[in-house]
Amino acid sequence: MWLFSLALFTSCANDDTTANNSTNDNINEVINVGGTELSFSLPTGENNRIPVRYKEYSLTNTNSKFYNAFLWQDDDKAYHMTDTDNKPSRWLNNGQHEFQAIYWPEALLTAFNDKSFNTTDQNDDNYTLLSEFLAIQPNFRISSTVEKITLPFAHRLARIIAHINIDPLLGEDVKLQNISFKNVDVLTGLTTGTNFTYSPVWDKIDELKPHTLKADSVFDIIVRPTYSVAANVMYDETATPSTSTCQVSILLSSGLKYNKTLSYALNANQELNVYLNVNAEGVDFNKSVSEKWDDKTYHDKYYELDTPNHTLAESGSSWQRALTYSTDSEWTKHLFQAIEGGAHHGDYFILDKDITIDYTTLSDEQKEMISKNSFVFTGHLDGFDHTITLMNFPEGRTSLFDGINTNYTTIQEEKITLSDDRKSYTGSYSEVWQANVHLEKDQKGIYHWVPEMGYRAEVININLSF
Fold first, then answer.
1. Which of 211, 225, 398, 437 is the 20 to 30 Å CA partner of 464?
2. What is the 3-state secondary structure (H, E, C) of 195-263?
């Protein structure tokens, strides 16, 4: 059985979730899990439940706490999240939610328990085990604007990649004889808890044999993260270093030996590329900035505006980008296009600061929509408790979002036709789907558009001021 480990919080008891969820009968608040970002499949069956905790950030309840849930995959590869009574887990409040989980591969647990894991040798087998030690980092938050979520597991550890370049002036026959990494912090074991909970044990290793990426030129080791960003610190950590050092030792076939010490600051799921140029005088090196360990990129040009550094949208959590902005007027222009037939019908918007919309600066078309009360917002807006100030609006206007349409039809529903028995469909739509409305197949093989109604247009966590 593959096990997941999650730190226990003494302020949270298992019956907290049961008590809250069993009294909540709003089916739209069920947490549907769309999948996990893993490079391999999880074991199926309800007996292989993965403990997960999620924390609510309610605007009305400042005392946020963690709730227990379980993630599991059925035989059809569909994910489910249930509470301690096997009932579907539900949103407990509107607003942000924080998910936390840690994945320990069974093989890695077994290797540590039977003392068969050699921490001084990161050969291919050990390297693979360490690379599958994953987690949902503690700063992963989503907003409850939609009911379907994706849980992204990332590498729990960090890694250093060393690129070796030997100066041809040393001789054509001079080759790399040996390379090792010294005095570096790595994972050396675990402490066992209860309910699939384990805590990592870190130690500084005197000398470590690295993993080979490319013979005689590129090597890497998996190391302990230094957590230079406090929000990324895992919840089972105690004291964490902000920087660490590693000595690289190079032995050439000519008998020359070189040592170089480098410092690094890496969060989990980050890697650092180091370029070592070996010449007669010694070793020169430079290092690239830290990058994400996995090579997945989610940058696209579906929206005219992109999030900073191409980060994924927190609102909606469908990996659909949320519209952010560089100026108030730019964001406002796109907001007014979130109507049926508009360029941003069904799209996501977020606010990370207060914003002002001045009626006198709007276009004639936008003013007409306001005056005729025809602006019917069909997107998703999570204001993250920020304020939209409406300035110089016509007398009598008390809201920007009168008449929100919650049951519109998305583009993908127009392009895809379900059969009469709803067990098959024709057509396709290759663009990013609007509003996270998606097709799901139930246990009887019948397709449903989820959500079928409601939660297709929302304005949450926002203050309006005139």
1. 437
2. CCCEEEEEEEEEEEECEEEECCCEEEEEECCCCCCHHHCCCCCCCCCCCEEEEEEEEECCCCEEEEEEE
